Amino acid sequence: MYRNPLRTSSLICALALSATSNATELDALLIDDTLPINPAISQADDPDRLPAVNADGADLLDAINGVSISRFGGRGLEPIIHGQSQTRLNVLLDGAYVHGGCPNRMDPPASWAALETYEQVTVLKGVQTVIYGGGGSGGTVLFERDTRSLALDPGVHGRVSALTSDNAIGHDLLADVVMSDTQRYLRVFGQTKKGENYTDGDGREVRTAFDHRQFGAVAGFMPNSDRLFELSVERNDFSDALYPGAGMDSPSEQGNLYRFRYLDAPDLAWIEQLRFELYRSDIEHLMDNYSNRTPPLYTTGPLTGTPMLRSAPTTSLTDGGRLVAETRLDDTRVEWGFDWQLRERNAILYNMDTGTAAALMYLWPGVSIDQAGLFAEATRNLDGGAQLKAGLRIDRVHASADRANDAFATPTPNAAYQTYYGVTAHDANETNLGGLLRYETTLEGGWRLYTGISRSVRTADATERYMNNWNMTPAKRWIGNPALSPEKHHQIDAGLSWGGAKRHLSLSAWYDRIQDYILRDTARGQPGILLADGANVYRNVDAELKGIEIAASLRLRPSLSLSASAAWVQGDNTQEDRPLPQIPPLEGELSLDYSNDRWGLGSRLRFALEQERIDPYSAQEVGPTPGWQAIDLYGHYQVNDNLLVRLGIDNLFDETYARHASRSNLLDPVAVRVNEPGRTLWLKASAMF
Predict the structure, then answer these.
(1) Model pTM?
(2) How confident is the model at residue 114 (pLDDT cuts 50, 70, 90)?
C-alpha cells in the first residue's frame, strides 16, 4: 500500500515544549520536533500550540525549544540550531532546496516558506538521517505539504484565514482550496501578507516593512492506491522589504518553484516503495540603497556631498532531485538511493550615480556548485523494543567561478583572492563521506533512551568560497576564499525521555568536534591570510560545539497544564582558544495553559540570559547582549466546527530586547543589532469549508 509521504513524528513539539508521542514502528529513531500548520491535517487538540504572528518560516521555528533566530529585518530571519545556521542547516520546502538570491542572506531558505500553505514543519536536530542531502550538521528542517491526505475527502473543500496586528504584521490573508475525486486532485492557494515597520519596547520605529504575495497549484493523479504523480508550481513575490541590519533594502524579489513527485509501491521483491522527485527554484533578487531609504553621501573627491547610489541584481538557480527506494528485510527497513543539486549564482554591484548602471564588481562571479550523493540507511527492530539505525552517504562536489577573471571598475575577483590568500579561483572537486549510527531503547520505569554518533561534511557555500566585495577601505572588504577545505563534523548525542498523559520530562546533550570549521574572520595576518588590514575573510580552524536541552510538562488538572523548556549551547575556536561568533545564550520558556472543548487561555514567559562570550575579532559581533524576558498572553474560541478565532498580546509589558545573533550588511560588513517588536496585539480567524 502507498504510504503517506509525511514522516511520522516521534516527538511532538507543543509550542516550545518537546513532548513524547507514541513511537511508531520504525520512525521512533527520528527524535524530532514537529509543528502542525494546517488544522485540517494536523487535528491538533490545542490551537495555541502554533504561534499566530509569523513573518516567515524561521519566525515559526523560533517556537521550538533549541531553535533560535538571527534577525536582519522584518523577513529573512535565520534559524539557528545547535549553534549553527545558514548552510549548516538543510532546509527543504516540500522536498525542494531553495538557495536564496542575496549574498548577504536577505532571503534564506526558510523565508521562502509561505507558512499557511504547508501542513507541518519538522525539525531534525543534529544528524539523524542521511537521505536529505550532504552536510546538515546543525539539523534538517522539512516544510511539508500533504495534499494527497487533504484530497481523501472527495469534492471541494478548503480553508480561509485572516490575521491582523497593531505592530509588525498589518494583514496576513490566505485562501486554500482542494478539489478531488477518487483518482485526481487539484489544490490552489494564495496568500498575501503585509509587514509594517514595527516599534520596539522603547517606542522607536524599526524599518521592517515588506509586502509578500504567493500563489500556487498542486495537481495529483492516482491511477491506483499505490501510485501517485504530483506536479506543483508556485510563485512568491516580495516587494519593498526593508532591512535595518543592512546597508541596502530589497525593492523587488521573485521566486518560482517547480516540483514533480512520483510515488509507487512496485510489484518487485526487492523494492517495497519508490519515491522520485525533481525540483527547480529560480530566484531573482534586487537590492539597492536608494529606492526605500536615503542613500549615503560621498565624503571625499569631486562628488563630495552627492548621493552614492548602489544597486545589486542577483540570480540563484537550483535544479535537483532524488530517487529513494525502500527495501524491507525481515525486521530491517533500508532506504537507499541518490540525490543531486546543481546551483548557479550570479551577483553584480552597480554604480547608479548617473542614473545609468555602471558595473563595479562581481559579488558572485558566475558561481556554480554541483553536488551528487549516494546514500543508504537501514533501521532494524531489535529485541525488547530497541531499534538501531545505520546510514552512510558519499557526495561528490564540483565548484567553479566562471567570471573570476572578469573585471569592471575594480580588480578581478581572482586578483582579490590572490591578494588575501595567494590563490585564484580554480575548479574544486571534493569527495565527502558521511554517516551515522543511532540506538534507541526502553529502560525500566518507562524511560526512553537514545544515543548516536555521526560524521557529516559540509562544502563551502558560494559566499564563503567566492564572495568579492572589494572596497577602497580595506576594513569594508569582504572576500571569499577559494582554497577553503570542507567542514568535517564528528558528533555524539544522547537523550532521555519519560512520561505520559499527565507529566513528561526530556533531557538531551550533544557534542560536535569540527575539523576545518569555516570561520568568517578579520584579516590580521593569520596563517593563510597574507594581509593584516581588517578585511572580512574566511579561513579554516578547528572548533567544537556542545549543548544541553531540557523540557518538562505537568498536567495540573484535566484542562490545566504547566510546561517549561530551556536550551544552552557553547561554541569555541579551539585552535585559538576564543569563542565562536554568533552563538545564542541560554534561552527558554515557561507556559501555563488552560483549554477545554470550546476555548482556551494561556500565558508564556520567554527569556534569554546575557551573552558575554563573544569573539573579540569578529565583525559579526556587536558586543555582549543583555539578558531579557517577555510575557505573552493568548487564547482561542472554537465558534463552531468550522470557525476558530484566536487572539493575543505578545510582549505584554513592552520590553525592549534583541536577540544576540546579528547580521552584517553588504556595503559595510559590520554587524547591526535589530530590536524585536514591542507590545503587539493580534487577532486571527480561520474557517474551513
Answers:
(1) 0.92
(2) confident
